Structure formats: structure tokens, C-alpha cells
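Input sequence (329 aa), recorded before submission:
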Amino acid sequence: MNKIGFTTSIPVEVIFAADLIPVDLNNVFITAANPGGYIEKAENAGFPRSTCAWIKGIYSAILDKSDIATVIGVVEGDCSNTRALIEVLELNGIKSIPFSYPNSRDYHQLKCEIIKLCDIFNVSIERCKEVKKELDVIRKKLAYIDELTWKHNKATGMENHIWQVSSSDFNGCCKAFDSELSEKIREIEERESGDNYIRLGYIGVPPINSDLYDFIEGLNARVIFNEVQRQFTMAHGIGNEDIVEVYRQFTYPYSLNNRLEDIKKQIELRKIDGIIHCTQAFCFRGIEDIVIRRQLPEVPILTFECDRPGPLDARTRLRIEAFIDMISP
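Predicted structure, C-alpha cell format:
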């Protein structure tokens, strides 16, 4: 089966309906044996130092995977550099398919984009709905993993993160993913509930730093809400046959106001003590921190900027430690 890469979460039902293998290129990059080497490779190819590490990592990840000949680039609703990225990829013989989440969140515009994608892969919306029913069985389990984190205090922040972020492509095989997830759930259920951790929310782009969650848990705190990763699970659309509406309610590609509505609800529901807002160097989303701080005055917020993959630097570790100490009872 052919693999179809993509630059951020897309209606993955279309790819599975076409009997193809979806590949989230962000996950390929960040889980590579040497993700830093991917950055260097892209910079050697001419990518500016001031380009986001994720874009450079995705570029090199694609070229490193000779079995990915087609990439879906989300040119509206995600990174503003994606349009230029797919132009460079086409120079390297990679077929690129643009996909947009309309900023207006207009139902009919989004429907046109999804139908266009269906036509390219020669599948029907009806077939995608059938696939969605199968994926929703897995998504219910992902929602349960989330509950095991924030409600039962058994799953770790890292487990919550990794299973949710992997749901963007279900690791390319939904059956294997389902089996591994079920096994993981059984393991977590057997644990005793953890201690009374400081309850943190993580908002913004998924972390590029490999040791963030472990470091936080070493300070008697736990991330019990991963904002964007949770959105990737599409748990909000479980049971909804209207695929267009499900991806219209997906907050990540649209305005910050939609994200803030979800964040505020989760802060109250999960009784979150503090928020960690991670921004990526050279990303426009860093500016959104101004709005986030004004709109979430009721909860302490720590913002820090990430750049390249690897462990947290000493300064960021110190800031996290001081933040958790400040909000501790």
C-alpha cells in the first residue's frame, strides 16, 4: 500500500477509505533517531535559520522516506510556511496536494475542500463515514485514556500526550493501533491512583522537547490536559456522522477564540492549577500568547519558547521548577 504524508492533522478517513497509509510527518520527524540531523540537512539545503524547526524537520523526513511520494500540505489553518514547503518538495519530485481549513469555518467551504480530497483519492463521502464509525471505536478509547489521566490520576502526562498525538494517523494502521491501545489501557487500569499532583494544562504546539513530561512529573506535578493533542483525537465528534461538521469543530486550524472556548471549559472541568503555554521559535502563534494571557486571567500561565528538538535547556527547567513551586499549595 502507498503512503500519503501530511503536514498536520487532516480528514484521515479519506486516506483510510482509499486503502492507503496515512503518515503524519511531524511524528516521523520528532521520533527519528536524530531529529536534530533533519534540521541540519534542511539548513544545508538552503532553509533559513529563522524557519520553524518543524518545517525543516518535515522537509528532511519526507526526503528520508523514499516510500512517500505524495504529501498533503495544509496551506490554510496551520503553518504559514507550508505553501513554500510544498513548492520546494515539488522540485524534489514529491507530488503535493494542498488542503485548506477555511479561516471563516464556513461549512460549505470546508465541505468543498473535503470533497476535493475525496475526488483526488477516488473515494466517496459515504465510504468515509463508514471508516469514521470504525475509527470512532478507537477514539472512544482515546477519550478514556484522557479520563484515566485527569479523572482517575493513573495515566501519565506523557502517555496522554503520545497516544493522543499519534491519533492523527493512528500510526498508519488503525487495527494495530487499536490493539496496542487496548493493551495499554489494561496496563494503566491496574495501577493505583497517583498522589495529589499539581494539575497542569499544556496548550500550544505539541512539545519538541523530549523530556518535558518526565521533568514535570519529577516535580510532583502532572499535565492532565494536552490541548492540541486532544483535538487530534476528534473525540468531540464521536458518533457524529457529519464529517464536515466534525472537522469544522476541530479547534486547532481556526481562530484562537475557538481554542480559548475549549481551554476555558477544560480548566474548569479538570480543576487545572496552572497552564504551560509552549510556543515554537519563529512561529506566528507565539504572538497569540498576548491574547491568551488576557483571556485567561483566572489561571497562572508559564510561557516558554522552544526551538530545536532535544532535552529542555537549563533555563527552561529552572523556569518550570519556579512556576510549579509558585502555584504549589
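Checked by second reader. The chain has 15 helices and eight strands.
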